[in-house]
Amino acid sequence: MLTLGMLAGRAELELAFAGGVDAARFEAVGVAGLTALTVSQLLEGEPQRRLDAGCLVLVTGLQFRGRGRAEVALETLMEQLALDACAGLVVSLAPGAHQPLPQAIRDLSHALSVPVLVTTAPLREWAKTRHRLQESRLAGAELRASQLTTLVQQVPSELADPRAMQRIADWLARALQVQVLVSDPHRVLAASPATAAEALAPAIIHSSVDAAASGRPTGPHTRLISLGPARGAGTVLAIARGTAPFDDAEVRLLGHAAKLLGLLDQARREYRAAAETSRAARRAAVELLLDGEVDKARRVLAAQAPGLLDADTVRVFVVDVPCAHRDVAVRRCEVVTEGRALVIADPRADRRILVVQPVRPGRADDGVGADLTRLVAALGAEASVGGSGVYSMSLLADALREASAAQGFALLQPDAAALSAPNTDLIGLLPPRDAQLWARSLLDPLMRHDGQWEQMRETLSMALAHPYTVAARRLNLHRNTVTRRVARAAEALRVDFASVADRIAVGLALELVTHREPPARSMTPGAYAPTLHSLLSSPQVTAWADTLLRSARGDRRDLITTATVWLTHEAHLEPAARALGLSEATVRSHLRALEAHMSRDLGSLGGLRDLQFALYVATGKVEIAESRGVLVPAT
Questions:
Q1: Which terminus of the chain has a smaller tally of CB atoms within 10 A, N or C?
Q2: Residue 613 in contact with residue 536, Cβ under 8 Å?
Q3: Alpha carbon of 415 to those of 320, 324, 339, 373, 375: distances in Å?
Q4: Measuring CA to CA, how many Å separate 473 from each of 391, 396, 414?
Q5: What is the residue-wise DSSP string for 79-107?
Q6: pLDDT at residue 97 above 70?
Q7: H or E stretch covering 205
Q8: How far apart are CA 61 and CA 513, in angstroms?
Q9: Out of 56-65, 306-315, 415-424, 526-535, which region has the weakest mean confidence (pLDDT)?
């Protein structure tokens, strides 16, 4: 848009501010059009209509010979110019005329803030100027329409799009040649260019939101606009330009942009609140699963992810990333596993992300592990992922321990991934058919009657993994009921659950029949059933045992001997310490060191199982239980 200063700079118009008028004050006033009046029209009371805002009025034929009708009419015209927000008044004088404007006109110009200019150019030059102003106005209208169209095009298809604010800020910076900052009291939401945050922060800090909410400028070329629906809202749009101030069209465009940014900010807040609620529910569900509270976890997650936890079995993945990148990594994990897994930031470790994948029958491999492996590769060299084998849902804590151990091994792999690798998942190394036959042979006395089996399977799994009091609470049973069922199971299986070896054998058999595929054909009475010894005799299991104990063997303390004696005394500290000639505290510290070396929890049945089998395979100095409760003596 042309301004009074730009018009005064055109030599052909011979235009200048009248003497006594502050030119610097009015040079930046925009001119939207031109209206010409003769002195006769002025004396007849023209114009008798409202003038357009930003219009410049040219009066021709004036002669000042003392205070007369012309001067009075001109004063009336100036009052109308002030009311209609016109750009100013131009008085055309004859070339060489020495008739200064009356002092009353100049005083009125100052009082009404209506600039008065004089020109000696012929009318044909002003006719050309009118045409130029019309062209400029048309071009400005087309520009604003184009800008508004482009602004609307910046609206994202999803209001919660995290990049939408930045795209609008970038567009505003280009369109108006300004610096743009969108911020709330806690963070910068968008800045364009990147230096805008530093440049505009002082304006936000030292300006009240009340002043910003009205859109009033806080400096010569700086504006703050509150994006909230009411004054006092924390999110603010700050715009600054180092050249010309903002004209009315630009201010309107900024108002439109602020409305769009306000909607995006509102959507961002609501989406964040919904996402936090969803994540809190998912965290609660995972915590309940880790405690074995499967039914409660299903109820908690029923509204968030209907049916996701209906499966009876599960896999767990542990993704490890630098702390600073975890929030981004969590969102990316949520995207790549959407609808197939639960993703939470591990509250116990600030680098870890837990991914819980329910596994339905026949769908053990639905791509979650492969998707996480690709994601870890994209996250960079400091990221890694470990995965567990398939576990029953109630044994999620055991699956997590295996996944954590696998993630440690993943650090040594070229692709930083170990998804239930052979050196971490013992069950995956056992021959599937033989393992099923052994497990079903051991559990056959319980599996003969479906009603008894369904009752015993759940009770035994929980009672072997936890103290009876805890198991009773999680099963919603009385402790005496759990005790009676376990006693009946021990009698039917001919085992002694006071024996660590028997507890481990039955626990392994339960795990195998719970989440592993059954043999191709059913067992028949008298059919061949492998022994536990034969299951553990493969080269793969030997390699697994050596790998699991390798780190512990390098410890200066004799951890292997401590573990062997401890297991021989049914995992009791006091008799083991007496047999070793050590204090109980020393034995306890040895076992804790062994847990760290093996990445296993020796307070869990799964951790005890891996330790016992590894020592049996690697040293032959511990006993394992065979089917039907028969013990295999140490070699």
A1: C
A2: yes
A3: 13, 22, 26, 8, 11
A4: 21, 17, 45
A5: HHHHHTT--EEEEE--TT---PPPHHHHH
A6: no
A7: helix 196-206
A8: 109
A9: 415-424
CB 241 within 8 A of CB 217: no
Q: How far apart are CA 572 and CA 631, in angstroms?
A: 20
Distance CA 101, CA 261 (A): 50
**Encoded amino acid at 616, one letter:** Y
pTM above 0.85, yes or no: no
Task: Tell me the two tokens of residue 160.
Answer: 């919660």
Rounded Cα distance between 1 and 144, Å, is: 12
DSSP at 3 = B
Amino acid letter, residue 594:
L
pLDDT per residue as tens digits for the range 384-418: 998 887 777 888 887 888 888 788 778 777 778 88
As given in the structure block, the two tokens for residue 285 are: 């569900």
In the predicted model, is pLDDT for residue 447 greater than 70? yes
Tokens for 587? 């034995």
Q: CA torsion sign, 129 to 130 to 131 to 132? A: positive
Q: Where are the beta strands (DSSP E) in 311-351?
A: 313-320, 342-345
Average pLDDT, the chain: 81
Residue 6 is encoded by which pair of tokens?
Answer: 């730009």
Count the neighbouring beta carbons within 10 Å of the beta carbon of residue 369: 19
271 confidence band (pLDDT: 50, 70, 90): confident
pLDDT at 223: 81
97 within 8 A of 1, measured Cβ to Cβ:
no
| Sequence-separated (6 or more) residues with CB below 8 Å from residue 439 | 508, 509, 510, 512, 513
Instruction: Measure the CA–CA gap between 226 and 261, rounded to whole angstroms.
Output: 10
Chain centroid to Cα 289, Å, comes to 24
Q: What is the CA radius of gyration of the chain?
A: 42
pLDDT digits (tens, 9 = 90+) for 341-350: 899 999 888 8
Q: What integer pLDDT is reported at residue 200 of this predicted model?
A: 79
Residue with tokens 């339960």: 510
Terminal C-alpha separation, the chain = 99
φ/ψ of 428, rounded to 5, equals -65, -15
Which residue pairs, CB below 8 angstroms and at least 24 apart, start in 376-383?
Answer: 376/319, 376/415, 376/416, 376/417, 377/415, 377/416, 379/321, 379/325, 379/329, 379/332, 381/416, 382/321, 382/322, 383/319, 383/320, 383/321, 383/322, 383/325, 383/329, 383/416
Residue 217: pLDDT band with limits 50, 70, 90? very low
Asked if residue 94 lies in contact with residue 124, where contact means CB atoms within 8 angstroms, the answer is no
Name the helix (H) or strand (E) containing 586.
Answer: helix 584-598
SS3 state at 222: strand
DSSP states of 399-465: HHHHHHHHHHHHTTSTTSEEES-TTT-SGGGS-HHHHHHHHHHHHHHHHTSHHHHHHHHHHHHHHHH
Which token pair is 364? 């053990």
Tokens of 626: 């065979």
β-pairing verdict for 384-387 and 417-419: parallel
Task: Answer for the pair 191, 169: CB distance below 8 angstroms, yes or no.
Answer: yes
Which residue bears the tokens 């995006």?
264
Closest CA to 133 of 250, 36, 20: 36
